[in-house]
Design brief:
Helix content is about 0%, strand content about 40%. It is mainly β. The chain has a domain at about 1-25. Strands 2-1-3 form a three-stranded mixed beta sheet, with no helix packed on it. Strand 1 (about 1-5) and strand 2 form a beta hairpin. Pfam families: SR1P. This is Phosphoesterase. It comes from Mesobacillus selenatarsenatis (strain DSM 18680 / JCM 14380 / FERM P-15431 / SF-1).
Amino acid sequence: MGTIVCQTCNATIDHFEDEKVTVLYSKKCNCCDHEGAEER
């Protein structure tokens, strides 16, 4: 089971099937704007 996580706010975006437990980080999510990503 894999998980896609927002790189900015650490919110879980999606899950996908995988043989290993995997966490992938994405810059795209609907829950935050990424204007202030440099501050964090």
